[in-house]
Write a structure and sequence with these properties.
Strand content of chain B: 35-45%
Structural class of chain B: mainly beta
Distance between the termini of chain A: 10 Å
Number of strands of chain A: 6
Largest interface: A-B, 16 and 25 residues
Helix content of chain A: over 70%
Oligomer: heterodimer
Shape of chain A: rod-shaped
Shape of chain B: elongated
Chain lengths: 279, 516
């Protein structure tokens, strides 16, 4: 073998090695590029930056604020602080509903206050009203008895057994019994009224939350629609990522293939070149 | 020329009693102008009343006072005791008057009303605490008391305040009723049932009738019970309540205005009627069938003015008694010492009772005992209506006819003879007096009746008393009369000295002369 040949063998070995080294380096570059394209982004040789798939997916999967408005004007909104990422959920009834709610709560408070009040005075008031209703008839009965006793010459009767006449005692007893019944009725009525006020307060309180409940009920379809949209976006992002990754993979496979080719060629050259030297 | 004698036969003269109200010229000879110390006897003749047989022998406790009230107490055991009041004392007994006044109890008047009630006798007088005498060891009258005690001191007594010290008390319908208080003239209190000492609690009570008086105002004077009615006498009106057995529910049944009662002691029960003295004379409630109303009849319409004159000037007490044994009602004006005797067997055409007058009797209290004896109180203590002497002294019977005109007021009458027919009066002096023209001129004559034996034989035949006291008629008395006048009245007087005397008839013989 000639020197030239020797020189050519040495040169081929060196070129093969260089080519293999370059294939080796390309594989590393391809891996780095694959990483960068999948994560932080990749800047090509021309200096163009291509965002990474993770970043793009992050953008695509990012929360989308939305607001649901009911037919009565109530609103439900979900927002995210762009800086802190803290989520904010706003439920906002309409002014009319708000007014209704406040009124109902005020009324409920009023009824609860009434229910909480000592019933003694109320019992007395009820008793007085009942007695006021009974008084005219009692007065008529008293006058009739007085007239009857006067006609019978008995207005001046005083007895140890009855106080006055038996009829006067009977009337007085009837009136006292009426008073007793009125008193007991007043007690019972006041208790029932207290219970009724508590029930009314409870009802008013519950009614006060009806707009909110209705708002929440009205939001459900909106939330569902937003969720569906969000899922659709997620699916789109997923499909995009998969597609993007597939493209990258194909790109990387291609690059790997090129690198493998270069490396294989370089290795073959080097092997052959080396084989010539040492043959 | 001789004139024919006209005979006027006054048969049973004055059997209709006194009549001072009708015109004397037009009067029926059956009336009398005067009938003193007389009664209508059992045969309808005017007769001398009975006298006073004094029973009391020891009237030391009475002193110079008079018996002003008498009450016979009888309990269920049959025990009797005679209470009387006088000389500001409560007395008992008939022969010896014992002082029964509670110790330390001061009496200022003798106008007591005494009633028997539930084995007790109660004494009521205005302003003084009522007294009680009770022999029952136990029971509803507070237990036995051996003497008269104050009502508030008995066991279980209650409610007897000074406001209930009434002047009138009535025992009726199982209770005591009292009224006529010192300051309250319109209220009636009633006691608990069967308990005259309990005036509060139980079924006791009161009735103020100040708004019931038909004339607007009156004052209660007396109470009476009649046919389940409570009769309340005012001075000028009467109020009647029905259903008094249950006083709490009794009702006004009737009112009478313009007629009242003068005094509680003039009210008497005759069994079918209630008699009382009003300002216009003696009245009665007539009992109607259905008791729906109580018409009042005047029982003294023949002597109304006489009664009014006496009652308006009476200064002491009124006393009365109904005595069925003699069929009379006595009404005494003690201040005037005059008694009217009303025969209650029947009424005259005008509805009046036949009335006679008792004068100068000194009777101041009456009580009909359960045995039919009429007790009479007076200065001498107690006595009975019996015999024909007043405490052993004679009394004068007097009859005066109305003016007799023999049917013609225009003719002169010349009395010729008076021929009285007298029943009884053995040995009595009879004074006959005739007067013409309203007593402008008169003449008198006296006769003495023969003394007559009382019994036909005064011995029993076959040991059987067949004959008792007889009735002797004195006839054939001829008294020559004189004088003349347009009208004539006949007066007959007799001193009653232990013998009964009745005037059967007077035959008046007269001639009728010229026209006046």
């Amino acid at each position: 073998m000639s020197i030239l040949e020797d020189l050519l063998g040495i040169g081929g070995t060196a070129a093969g090695l260089a080519l293999a080294a370059k294939g080796y380096e390309d594989v590393g570059d391809i891996g780095r590029e694959a990483f960068e394209r999948m994560s932080t982004g990749f800047t090509d040789d021309s200096g163009q930056f291509t965002p990474g798939l993770a970043g793009m997916l992050e953008e695509r999967f990012e929360f989308q604020p939305y607001t649901v408005t009911t037919a009565t004007g109530g609103q439900f909104g979900m927002t995210q602080d762009p800086e802190t990422g803290q989520m904010t959920y706003d439920i906002q009834t309409s002014p009319e509903e708000q007014n209704l709610q406040e009124e109902q709560l005020r009324r409920a408070e009023s009824f609860f206050n009434l229910a909480e009040t000592d019933t003694t005075q109320r019992e007395q008031d009820i008793y007085n009203r009942m007695r006021a209703a009974q008084a005219p008839e009692e007065e008529r009965q008293r006058l009739a008895l007085e007239q009857r006793l006067a006609n019978q010459g008995r207005l001046g009767v005083r007895t140890s057994m009855f106080g006055g006449t038996p009829e006067q005692l009977a009337l007085a007893q009837a009136q006292e019994e009426a008073k007793n019944r009125a008193m007991l009725s007043a007690l019972e009525f006041a208790g029932q009224e207290q219970q009724r006020q508590a029930q009314l307060g409870t009802g008013m309180l519950a009614a006060g939350y009806v707009p909110q409940a209705q708002l929440l009920s009205g939001l459900q379809p909106g939330i569902t629609a937003a969720e569906q949209r969000r899922q659709a976006l997620a699916q789109q992002a997923g499909a995009f990522g998969e597609t993007y990754a597939t493209g990258l993979e194909a790109l990387l496979q291609s690059a790997l293939g090129q690198a493998n080719i270069a490396g294989g060629v370089g290795g073959s050259i080097a092997t052959q070149s080396l084989g010539g030297l040492f043959s | 020329m001789a004139q024919q004698l006209n005979s006027i036969n006054l048969v049973a003269p004055a059997f209709k009693g006194i009549n001072t109200e009708d015109s004397p010229l037009a009067q029926d000879p059956s009336f009398a102008e005067v009938a003193d110390n007389a009664v209508i006897d059992r045969r309808g003749r005017i007769a001398a009343r009975k006298g006073l047989s004094v029973t009391t022998t020891n009237k030391t406790q009475l002193g110079s006072g008079k018996v002003r009230g008498i009450k016979e107490f009888i309990n269920d055991a049959g025990t009797t005791k005679i209470f009387s009041v006088g000389n500001n004392k409560i007395l008992s007994g008939t022969t010896t008057l014992a002082d029964e006044t509670p110790g330390g109890y001061s009496i200022s008047a003798d106008n007591w009303k005494m009633v028997n009630f539930n084995d007790s006798v109660y004494f009521f007088q205005r302003g003084l605490q009522p007294l009680i005498y009770n022999t029952v060891a136990s029971g509803s009258s507070g237990g036995a008391n051996s003497s008269v005690v104050t009502l508030s001191s008995v066991n279980s007594a209650a409610g007897l305040t000074s406001a209930k010290y009434g002047n009138e008390v009535l025992a009726a319908y199982g209770r005591l009723w009292t009224a006529d208080f010192s300051t309250d003239k319109s209220t009636i209190y009633w006691s608990d049932l069967l308990s005259g000492h309990i005036w509060t609690g139980g079924s006791s009570g009161s009735l103020d009738i100040s708004q019931v008086w038909p004339d607007g105002y009156d004052e209660i004077v007396a109470l009476a019970a009649h046919n389940n009615h409570l009769i309340i006498f005012g001075k000028r009106s009467i109020v009647v309540y029905s259903g008094a057995t249950a006083p709490a529910s009794m009702t006004l049944a009737d009112t009478v205005s313009g007629v009242g009662c003068v005094d509680r002691d003039t009210v008497q029960y005759t069994g079918t009627d209630v008699i009382f003295l009003s300002q216009t004379g003696l009245k009665s409630f007539g009992r109607t069938i259905q008791e729906k109303s109580m018409p009042i009849s005047n029982l003294s319409s023949t002597i109304t003015k006489d009664i009014i004159a006496l009652l308006s000037s009476e200064t002491e007490f009124f006393r009365s008694v109904y005595y069925p044994e003699e069929n009379f009602y006595l009404l005494t004006f003690t201040g005037h010492n005059t008694t009217f005797c009303f025969d209650i067997r029947g009424t005259l055409e005008n509805g009046a009772y036949r009335a006679t007058r008792w004068t100068g009797t000194g009777f101041t209290a009456y009580e009909r005992k359960d045995n039919g004896t009429l007790l009479i109180g007076g200065l001498h203590g107690l006595g009975s209506y019996a015999g024909y002497l007043d405490n052993s002294e004679t009394y004068r019977f007097r009859y005066t006819s109305p003016e007799l005109t023999f049917g013609d007021t225009t003719k002169l009458k010349f009395l010729k003879k008076l021929r009285p027919v007298i029943v009884g009066g053995s040995g009595a002096n009879i004074f006959l007096k005739w007067a013409y023209d309203f007593k402008s001129k008169s003449g008198t004559s006296d006769i003495t009746l023969a003394t007559q034996a009382k019994a036909f034989f005064n011995e029993s035949e076959f040991n059987i008393g067949q004959f008792s006291k007889g009735e002797f008629v004195t006839t054939g008395l001829d008294v020559n009369a004189n004088g003349s006048g347009g009208s004539v009245s006949i007066d007959l007087q007799a001193d009653i000295n232990g013998e009964e005397l009745s005037l059967q008839e007077i035959n008046v013989l007269a001639t009728v002369g010229r026209t006046i």
